[in-house]
């Protein structure tokens, strides 16, 4: 029996008929990953995780960790070593007296918001329902109402972690505080295996309201100028997204007089009643001065159901590319520059989304002393490339490259969770403040000096090791 063979923990080696399914079945993105570990381990208890880490260390095998498999770049799938599949860790335990919850890294956003809502609670869960909590929280967690509540990683009060030495520890403000700091936003660079998060909870908004507008893409300049003007007067608990749509959009069937390319505006007010929502959204009431195609006025959508609309834009079984760009410009200053590219996207399912968290003010001055997550600006622009046919891979990659080239003109940094570091490794450091990036590297060397954990993509890890 090797150090990684533990009763009750499934081990799937290369050559096992189950191996390929164990690698790819839980990866959301169907764009192929050509890397393969030596084995997949599926621990069921914390003791299993400890045994797996100790065994990997004894056999000089590196370790990668997968919580939900939603990473666009398949970050958990690495060459050689072992992949720890944490899918058994999907528990949720709510403590009403302390307004906290203890959650496993594999619980999805949809599962978590439903469990919290039943107890009258919420937190800035992911806009989509499918990501696992582990990758989401370690990546920063830009989710529902995060402009007001701040990124979800700041909701973490403690974590249970198996370190590179094989020790199970708790990290909180009072013990192993540096590990807690790393858990708040270090992404795949976290030097350990999180078995449980303790998160702080918010009161569930009682009457979340959503207003939405749809316009021809030809009116992109007028629409983005309107949103930029209104944002100065919107409260931080209103979240506004500007989203472009192609002809294969999931939210509106084609019809007479409806252009192929559209731009939509969605404003979500996280409030307790309709009147409060109407007051909060009043700065948008005047519109952009051009006629809309569709308008939805203050539709009531329960907080725990908001993810359904987002999930429709990310259908399962598809191939994806994504990128992210922080900019100090407003929506008006950056999106109109993309209009010609949007009109010739190879896939009609691809789109670009822009959000001004807290309407340009709420995230200024992030508490960098308590978390690695440290990059923000006025506007976050996120291009998503969505298609099905492998024959279209090259065309879609090229198109995203053109989008990225335009957005780099305005960019002050990136959101690490959705940046393709395999293509643009220089964006790693630009996803943190200079101070946080320096501290992150030092702490990773301290907690994982032998690089047991795979961490960031291999070319980046080699470069970091050479610079150390």
Overview features:
468 residues, alpha+beta, nine-stranded antiparallel sheet, five-stranded antiparallel sheet, 20 strands
What characteristic shape results from the CA principal axes? Answer: globular
Estimate what percentage of residues fall within beta strands: 15-25%
The secondary structure category is alpha+beta
Give the biggest beta sheet: 9 strands, antiparallel
Averaged pLDDT, please?
93
Query: What Rg, in angstroms, do the CA atoms define?
Result: 22 Å
So how many helices? 14
Distance between the termini: 37 Å
- The low-confidence parts are none
Helical proportion, percent range: 25-40%
DSSP, total strands:
20
Helices and strands in order:
Elements: E1 10-13, H1 19-24, E2 39-42, H2 46-58, E3 63-66, E4 82-85, E5 92-95, E6 100-103, H3 109-117, E7 121-122, H4 133-138, H5 146-149, E8 156-163, E9 168-172, H6 177-183, E10 192-200, E11 202-203, E12 209-216, H7 220-231, E13 238-245, E14 262-269, H8 274-280, E15 294-300, H9 307-312, E16 319-322, E17 325-327, H10 331-334, H11 339-343, E18 351-355, E19 379-387, H12 393-408, E20 411-413, H13 434-447, H14 458-467
Parallel strand pairs: 2-4, 3-4
Antiparallel strand pairs: 1-2, 5-6, 6-10, 7-11, 8-9, 8-10, 12-14, 12-15, 13-14, 13-18, 16-19, 17-19, 17-20, 18-19
Structural features, described:
This protein is of the alpha+beta class and 468 residues long. It is built from 14 helices and 20 strands. The longest helix is centred in the last third of the chain and has 16 residues. The relative contact order is 0.13. The mean pLDDT is 93.
């Amino acid at each position: 029996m090797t150090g990684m063979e533990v009763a009750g923990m499934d081990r799937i080696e290369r050559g096992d008929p189950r191996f390929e399914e164990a690698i790819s079945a839980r990866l959301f993105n169907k764009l192929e990953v050509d890397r393969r570990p030596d084995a997949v381990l599926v621990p069921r208890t914390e003791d299993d995780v400890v045994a797996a880490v100790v065994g990997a260390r004894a056999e000089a095998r590196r370790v990668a960790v997968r919580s939900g498999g939603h990473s666009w770049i398949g970050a958990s799938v690495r060459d050689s070593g072992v992949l720890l599949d944490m899918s058994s860790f999907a528990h949720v335990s709510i403590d009403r007296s302390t307004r906290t919850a203890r959650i496993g890294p594999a619980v999805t956003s949809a599962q978590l918001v439903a469990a919290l809502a039943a107890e009258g609670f919420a937190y800035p869960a992911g806009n989509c329902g499918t990501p696992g909590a582990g990758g989401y929280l370690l990546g920063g967690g830009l989710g529902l109402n995060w402009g007001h509540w701040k990124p979800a990683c700041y909701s973490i009060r403690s974590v249970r972690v198996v370190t590179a030495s094989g020790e199970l520890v708790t990290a909180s403000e009072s013990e192993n505080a540096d590990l807690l700091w790393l858990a708040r936003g270090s992404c795949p660079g976290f030097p350990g295996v999180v078995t449980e998060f303790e998160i702080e909870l918010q009161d569930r908004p009682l009457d979340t309201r959503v207003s939405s507008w749809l316009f021809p893409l030809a009116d992109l300049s007028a629409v983005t100028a309107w949103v930029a003007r209104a944002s100065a007067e919107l409260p931080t608990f209103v979240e506004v997204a500007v989203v472009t749509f192609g002809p294969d959009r999931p939210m509106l069937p084609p019809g007479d007089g409806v252009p192929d390319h559209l731009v939509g505006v969605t404003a979500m007010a996280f409030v307790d009643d309709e009147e409060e929502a109407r007051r909060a959204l009043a700065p948008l009431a005047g519109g952009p001065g051009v006629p809309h195609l569709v308008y939805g006025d203050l539709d009531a959508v329960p907080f725990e159901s908001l993810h359904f609309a987002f999930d429709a834009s990310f259908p399962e079984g598809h191939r994806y590319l994504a990128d992210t760009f922080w900019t100090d410009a407003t929506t008006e200053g950056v999106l109109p520059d993309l209009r010609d590219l949007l009109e010739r996207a190879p896939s009609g399912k691809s789109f670009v989304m822009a959000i001004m968290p807290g309407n340009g003010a709420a995230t200024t001055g992030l508490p960098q002393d308590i978390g690695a997550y440290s990059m923000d600006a006025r506007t976050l622009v996120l291009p998503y490339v969505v298609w099905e046919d492998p024959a279209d891979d090259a065309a879609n990659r090229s198109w995203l490259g053109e989008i990225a080239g335009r957005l780099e003109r305005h960019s002050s940094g990136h959101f690490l969770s959705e940046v393709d570091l395999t293509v643009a490794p220089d964006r790693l450091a630009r996803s943190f403040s200079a101070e946080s990036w320096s501290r992150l590297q030092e702490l990773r060397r301290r907690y994982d000096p032998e690089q047991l954990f795979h961490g960031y993509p291999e070319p980046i890890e080699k470069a970091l090791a050479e610079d150390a």
